[in-house]
């Protein structure tokens, strides 16, 4: 009977594999048990008084079979009953009851209702935890704000891909005539129609997230969260009303917001990607500042929708990406009407005329060589020079969570735990691990890294860039295979020959294992996904060859 | 030019005869390899062999279709198969794009028309450029090309016959038969041959086929009916039994279900009994409806048979050399090294018994054969896990086993099927129905959960399935696929997120991001 005071007691017939089986059959069950308690297994066969215990068990529970499971003295039953109890949550409840978690309002508070935060909250709630999500969108300097779901849904992947799709359809319209479709020459794009359709869809997603949180019994507050003392957060809503909440564990998932360069006129007159996707008027002649993927993607679809677009770049395109691919992306955009001003940065933006859009005058200076000044008028200036983590105004210093002072990112260990044990961080605010040493590269840590761009010619990659591969393995140990290709659909449409491009990088000393895959062409994302899976399964060049026949047009490393 | 060609042929004729004499004297054959049939497989094999410095010749000859359609070098895929089909499918997709575009803010003044002749001209021009490309490639690789019909006169000798009836004798050490297949006509339906066309004619029509009846439930039938519907033609598919036999039947039903929503009409469990030509030039088709036991009739501008394909072996005179064929299918029986019953005679591609009728497999088989013959390779063609895509309006891509085949091989208790109904992001704004967008993955149920088959219905299915096919070839397991991070937002990422098993009976509809 004293045993019954133990948290979880499992009586077994003495064969350990049964215990292992119980726990291993369900992965989440296992992690749940490990996280919650130490388990006492009693192997009846090995106990001197085993038979008498078994007798007592039968009397107590009317159950002859093992395993026989008790939690805090409460009889659960055999294997099936334990599962049942786990799945309906009663097991968690029994185990949880013994904890002194009562002192906190919540088991878990998540700051930030983006992709990561929402997924985490729902998963935790699934384990029977009491969860609060705080989400609050600080409006942009121009007053744009949005609903639940974070960057991806509101001002990132989703609207971006839809606008990219709108631009692709513009291309499809041109193609369609070659394929026999006939209609009036004059085709115009209506920005407002597109934005309304996209915003309606996003609105439905925002609503869907609200509903799914409610269904999972996650509490949601549309308030700004800030730590005021350990385990305690202050939440301020739109009206300025303040509430306080405590929790045992916290997850930071505040994400990032676009950076402003800090030049005269930037916040007053320029927009960022946070404003673009819901812009109520057509941006007209646009200057995109920056060489990030956001800059190139936005410039790409704006040009595709018929806008006069110029991209102003400080130095190289797409830093950190495979540079050969980056240059090809830039070259393709240039041949499709996007202008590039290289080695210039804006120093001032002035308003010449208000309006929707208005008229702005941009002054820029050269970044190298002879100092040069560039001046031009635009309707819209879109800043896409980078993004900053939203970690500076949430009271992290109050509870001692360390951030990288330079970029605001949060360093974490492998369990995504910050230096303060009860605070975790996920998503875009994590300190990047891009600065990998060659050794780490070889260890394959980057192999699951993808890049994917919805530039007019889509780009997908998996694994290492050529530069990183050379750094990690040495040029002489690599074989790079590449090929230009002409998608069948483009032939009849009379679209560019010799633009679509594929490249794979193989390690010569590991059976020609593929360590980098890069493709530039239509549907690159769809194409890359499967290859990513294949690379994970140890894809080699030989196998690739037999299946799709990328010919080695360049047998030696360039 | 014409005279030049004729002169050359005559010269060749002479040299051919000379050759036979030479061979009779020295016992040496003129060529190391002779390929009969200049399609995907044959050309790949010939070019690969030439890479090894061997003396290679290709014989290619297109017997005009019963309606008189003929084409150039390159075989079925290039001329009357994958290439023109995918281009016409693209034309249909662009028709959908025109509709989508309006939701995305493009103002297009109605009406929108499709003109067959513009499309056909563009497609045919492209195909002709490929014909020319193949000629040039053969020349570059120093492969001798004969535009002749070949038949065996002895195990090392082929008698080539030009269109004009001129004969040339070619001898070779090794011979590869790669003459492919041609569409079948039904044999007992009055008017079928006289008034009907097949896929051999469709892609070369100069004028629109108009209101069309497509008979058959093969992928050829559904693909053609799909694009005809897509470019705005009144299209009906008549099928006697199940669609896409051999494919996963749940997927096949979704494909036809989507086509019905898309506007293709279906006459199910019906078979035609006669085709008559009316004075109006319309074709009146009479059929039996086996459900109702009634006889029905309707008029069409075009009737296309897509009731299967048959190998073209008759003219080869195989009996003379003892190459064995399957008496039922007429296809040539080969072993794992593509050798026929006569050791130095090989066969690849659609003409071989039990092999997939697919271009990439024929190409790979041809190349590997050439490498084994001349390149000291011993690698055999792996016919397992060959991915394929059906280019119906909503595309269907698959690799590996169908659910039925998996159940048959392993038993339903030993397989786990993960599935999901998903909505492609582009469909949302375009207000397109995604009811049939569906993914299914068939795995072994035991701990490792090796993937046996993957099935995907949705846009760009071919592009999506290709990489996964590689993964499956590498022995991918369900847990491995789940560890692959998704590329967001794509359709392919849904495959990496599959988690609902059929066994669970839970709703497999994907919601949210």
Automatic annotation (TrEMBL), chain A:
One BP term from GO: glutathione metabolic process
GO cellular component, one term: mitochondrion
InterPro entries reported in the protein's UniProt record: FAD/NAD-bd_sf, FAD/NAD-binding_dom, FAD/NAD-linked_Rdtase_dimer_sf, Glutaredoxin, GSHR/TRXR-like, Pyr_nucl-diS_OxRdtase_dimer, Pyr_OxRdtase_I_AS, Thioredoxin-like_sf
Its EC number(s): 1.8.1.9
Pfam families associated with the record: Glutaredoxin, Pyr_redox_2, Pyr_redox_dim
Cofactor: FAD
TM region(s), chain numbering: none
Domain of life: Eukaryota
Keywords: Disulfide bond, FAD, Flavoprotein, NADP, Oxidoreductase, Redox-active center, Selenocysteine
GO molecular function: flavin adenine dinucleotide binding; glutathione-disulfide reductase (NADPH) activity; thioredoxin-disulfide reductase (NADPH) activity
Similarity field: Belongs to the class-I pyridine nucleotide-disulfide oxidoreductase family.
The protein's name in its UniProt record: thioredoxin-disulfide reductase (NADPH)
Organism: Melopsittacus undulatus
Automatic annotation (TrEMBL), chain B:
Annotated residues for binding of FAD: 86, 150, 350
Cross-referenced InterPro entries: FAD/NAD-bd_sf, FAD/NAD-binding_dom, FAD/NAD-linked_Rdtase_dimer_sf, GSHR/TRXR-like, Pyr_nuc-diS_OxRdtase, Pyr_nucl-diS_OxRdtase_dimer, Pyr_OxRdtase_I_AS, Thioredoxin/glutathione_Rdtase
Cofactor, how bound (note): Binds 1 FAD per subunit.
EC number assigned by the record: 1.8.1.9
Gene Ontology process terms (BP): cell redox homeostasis; cellular response to oxidative stress; glutathione metabolic process
Keywords (A to Z) from UniProt: Disulfide bond, FAD, Flavoprotein, NAD, NADP, Nucleotide-binding, Oxidoreductase, Redox-active center, Selenocysteine
Gene Ontology CC annotations of this record: cytosol; mitochondrion
Active site: 488
SUPFAM superfamilies per the UniProt record, alphabetical: FAD/NAD(P)-binding domain, FAD/NAD-linked reductases, dimerisation (C-terminal) domain
Residue numbers binding NAD(+): 216-223, 308
Gene Ontology MF terms in the entry: flavin adenine dinucleotide binding; glutathione-disulfide reductase (NADPH) activity; thioredoxin-disulfide reductase (NADPH) activity
Protein family membership: Belongs to the class-I pyridine nucleotide-disulfide oxidoreductase family.
Protein known as: thioredoxin-disulfide reductase (NADPH)
Organism: Melopsittacus undulatus (Budgerigar)
């Amino acid at each position: 009977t004293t045993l019954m005071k133990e948290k979880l007691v499992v009586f077994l017939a003495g064969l350990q594999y049964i215990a292992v089986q119980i726990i291993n059959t369900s992965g989440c069950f296992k992690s749940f048990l490990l996280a919650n308690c130490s388990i006492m297994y009693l192997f009846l066969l090995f106990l001197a008084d085993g038979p008498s215990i078994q007798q007592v068990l039968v009397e107590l529970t009317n159950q002859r079979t093992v395993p026989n499971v008790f939690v805090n003295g409460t009889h659960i039953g055999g294997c099936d009953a334990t599962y049942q109890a786990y799945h309906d949550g009663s097991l968690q409840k029994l185990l949880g009851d013994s904890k002194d978690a009562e002192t906190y309002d919540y088991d878990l508070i998540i700051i930030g209702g983006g992709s990561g935060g929402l997924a985490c909250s729902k998963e935790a709630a699934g384990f029977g935890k009491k969860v609060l999500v705080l989400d609050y969108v600080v409006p942009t300097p121009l007053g744009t704000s949005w609903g639940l779901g974070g960057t991806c849904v509101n001002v990132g992947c989703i609207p971006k891909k839809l606008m990219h799709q709108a631009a692709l359809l513009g291309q499809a319209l041109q193609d369609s005539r070659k394929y026999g479709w006939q209609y009036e020459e004059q085709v115009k794009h209506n920005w407002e129609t597109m934005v309304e359709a996209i915003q309606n869809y996003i609105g439905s997603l925002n609503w869907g997230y609200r509903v799914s949180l409610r269904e999972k019994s996650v509490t949601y507050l549309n308030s700004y969260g800030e730590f005021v003392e350990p385990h305690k957060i202050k939440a301020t809503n739109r009206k300025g009303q303040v509430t306080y909440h405590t929790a045992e564990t916290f997850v930071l998932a505040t994400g990032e917001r676009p950076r402003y360069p800090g030049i005269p006129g930037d916040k007053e007159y320029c927009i960022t990607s946070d404003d673009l996707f819901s812009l109520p008027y057509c941006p007209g002649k646009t200057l995109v500042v920056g060489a990030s993927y956001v800059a190139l993607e936005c410039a790409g679809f704006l040009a595709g929708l018929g806008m006069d677009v110029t991209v102003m770049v400080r130095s190289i395109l797409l830093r950190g990406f495979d540079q050969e691919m980056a240059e090809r992306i830039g070259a393709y955009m240039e041949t499709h009407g996007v202008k590039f001003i290289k080695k210039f940065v804006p120093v001032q933006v002035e308003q010449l005329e208000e309006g929707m859009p208005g008229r702005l005058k941009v002054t820029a200076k050269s970044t190298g060589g002879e100092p040069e000044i560039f001046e031009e008028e635009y309707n819209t200036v879109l800043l896409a020079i980078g993004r900053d983590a939203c970690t500076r105004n949430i009271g992290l210093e109050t509870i001692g969570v360390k951030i990288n002072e330079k970029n605001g990112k949060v360093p974490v260990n492998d369990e995504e735990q910050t230096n303060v044990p009860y605070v975790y961080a996920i998503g875009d605010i994590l300190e990047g691990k891009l600065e990998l040493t060659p050794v780490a590269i070889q260890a394959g840590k980057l192999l699951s890294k993808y890049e994917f761009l919805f530039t007019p010619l889509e780009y997908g990659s998996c694994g290492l860039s050529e530069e990183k591969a050379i750094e990690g393995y040495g040029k002489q140990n690599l074989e790079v295979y590449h090929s230009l290709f002409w998608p069948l659909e483009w032939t009849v449409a009379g679209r560019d020959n010799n633009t679509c491009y594929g490249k794979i990088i193989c390690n010569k000393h590991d059976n020609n294992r593929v360590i980098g895959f890069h493709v530039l062409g239509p549907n690159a994302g769809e194409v890359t996904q499967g290859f990513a899976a294949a690379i994970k399964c140890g894809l080699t060049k030989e196998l690739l060859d037999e299946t799709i026949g990328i010919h080695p047009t360049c047998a030696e490393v360039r | 030019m014409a005279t030049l060609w004729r002169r050359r042929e005559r010269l060749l004729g002479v040299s051919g005869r000379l050759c036979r004499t030479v061979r009779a004297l020295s016992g040496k054959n003129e060529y190391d390899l002779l390929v009969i049939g200049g399609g995907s497989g044959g050309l790949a094999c010939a070019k690969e062999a030439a890479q090894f410095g061997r003396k290679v010749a290709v014989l290619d000859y297109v017997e005009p279709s019963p309606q008189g359609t003929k084409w150039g070098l390159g075989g079925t895929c290039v001329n009357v198969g994958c290439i023109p089909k995918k281009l016409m499918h693209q034309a249909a997709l662009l028709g959908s794009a025109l509709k989508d575009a309006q939701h995305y803010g493009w103002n297009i003044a109605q009406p929108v028309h499709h003109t067959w002749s513009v499309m056909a001209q563009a497609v045919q021009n492209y195909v002709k450029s490929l014909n020319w490309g193949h000629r040039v490639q053969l020349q570059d690789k120093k492969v001798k090309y004969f535009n002749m019909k070949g038949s065996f006169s002895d195990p090392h000798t082929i008698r080539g016959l030009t269109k004009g009836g001129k004969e040339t004798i070619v001898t070779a050490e090794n011979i590869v038969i790669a003459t492919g297949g041609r569409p079948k006509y039904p044999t007992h339906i009055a008017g079928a041959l006289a008034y009907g066309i097949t896929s051999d004619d469709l892609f070369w029509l100069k004028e629109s086929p108009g209101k069309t009846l497509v008979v058959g439930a093969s992928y050829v039938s559904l693909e053609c009916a799909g694009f005809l519907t897509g470019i705005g033609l009144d299209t009906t598919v008549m099928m006697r039994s199940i669609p896409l036999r051999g494919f996963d039947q749940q997927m096949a039903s979704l494909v036809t279900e989507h086509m019905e929503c898309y506007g293709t009409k279906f006459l199910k469990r019906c078979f035609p009994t006669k085709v008559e030509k009316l004075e109006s030039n319309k074709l009146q088709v009479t059929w039996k409806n086996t459900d109702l036991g009634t006889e029905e009739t309707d008029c069409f501008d075009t009737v296309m048979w897509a009731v299967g394909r048959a190998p073209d072996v008759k003219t080869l005179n195989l009996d003379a050399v003892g190459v064995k064929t399957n008496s039922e299918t007429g296809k040539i029986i080969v072993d794992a090294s593509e050798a026929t019953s006569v050791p130095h005679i090989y066969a690849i591609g659609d003409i071989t018994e039990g092999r997939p009728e697919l271009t990439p497999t024929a190409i790979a088989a041809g190349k590997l054969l050439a490498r084994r013959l001349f390149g000291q390779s011993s690698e055999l063609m792996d016919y397992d896990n060959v991915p394929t895509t059906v280019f119906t309006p909503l595309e269907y891509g698959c690799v590996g086993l169908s659910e039925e085949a998996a159940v048959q091989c392993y038993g339903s208790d030993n397989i786990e099927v993960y599935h999901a109904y998903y909505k492609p992001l582009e469909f949302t704004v375009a207000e397109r129905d995604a009811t049939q967008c569906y993914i299914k993955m068939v795995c072994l149920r035991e701990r490792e959960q090796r993937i046996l088959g993957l099935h995907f219905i949705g846009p760009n299915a071919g592009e999506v399935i290709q990489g996964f096919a590689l993964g499956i070839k590498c022995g991918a397991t369900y847990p491995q696929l789940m560890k692959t991070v998704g590329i967001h937002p794509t359709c392919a990422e849904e495959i990496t997120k599959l988690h609902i098993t059929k066994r669970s009976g839970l709703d497999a509809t994907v919601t949210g991001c």
